[in-house]
Amino acid sequence: MRIDILTLFPDALGDVLSESILGRAQERGFIHIEAHQIRDYTSNKQNQVDDYPYGGGRGAIMQADPLYRCWESVCDEAAGPVHTIYLSPCGHTFTQRDAIRLSKKENIIFVCGHYEGIDQRFIDECVDEEISLGDFVLTGGELPAMMITDAVSRLVPGVLGDEVCFTDESHWDGLLEYPQYSRPEVWHGLAVPEGLLSGNHQNVDRWRKKQSILRTMYRRPDMFKKL
Questions:
Q1: pLDDT digits over 140-189, tens only?
Q2: What is the 3-state secondary structure (H, E, C) of the chain?
Q3: CA-CA 20 to 30 A from 42: which of 148, 154, 191, 205?
Q4: In angstroms, what CA-CA distances link 134 with 4, 39, 120, 144, 221?
């Protein structure tokens, strides 16, 4: 999988996407993540990427042409069809189902907006879908791009050691994950639940399933209703 991020701040993405699991996955060739500086695709000496909005109003709007030039260059590099996502508070809220769906794409482009947004004409011509992280507004699309890249990349075959690494987690089957415990058996007077100490795998699985259901019911009743 190839993921390209169009941004005004490519240096802000480096360490997050090149360390730990994602870093190793890139070294092994399972994924390729690259950030592109939109200013490199401007047609003026000032590297201007924004201008005042038509109709008046506060702030500035990212212009369509630099975005398009950057997007077009990345599309030319990609081997195959490209799926373009604009990170926007107007988009639908990202979920684990989106992560699963997007993990099957070969090439994804994330467009990171700034200021008061980007020219609608670029969205109309180049963007396949708009995605939001929730009902709040950020200063730019870099954080959502990194978070969605992380969520999607870990589902790509080979990135994690085994499918169970993600199929047993929160949100995969509509439930929250069960509580986890490690050594020592007693810490600060708190003991590991008996259900995990029997050594019987069926009993352990039963305990975990019950805890997932209870946790979902109490913490996320909205999810529980959909079961």
A1: 999 999 999 999 999 999 898 665 545 555 556 788 889 999 999 999 99
A2: CEEEEEECCHHHCHHHHHCHHHHHHHHCCCCEEEEEEHHHHCCCCCCCCEECCCCCCCCCEECHHHHHHHHHHHHHHCCCCCEEEEEEEEEEECCHHHHHHHCCCCEEEEEECCCCCECHHHHHHHCCEEEECCCCCCCCCHHHHHHHHHHHHCCCCCCCCCCHHHHCCCCCCCCCCCCCCCCCCEECCEECCHHHCCCCHHHHHHHHHHHHHHHHHHHCHHHHCCC
A3: 148
A4: 22, 28, 21, 10, 18
pLDDT value at residue 172? 61
Question: What would the two tokens of residue 62 be?
Answer: 């990212």
Instruction: Quote the CA–CA distance of 69 and 41 in Å, as a whole number.
Output: 6
Residue 218 neighbours by CB distance under 10 Å = 10
Residues of 117-145 as b/e, b for ≥16 C-beta within 10 angstroms? bbbeebbeebbeebbbbeeeebebbbbbb
Give the integer Cα–Cα distance in Å for 39 and 173: 42
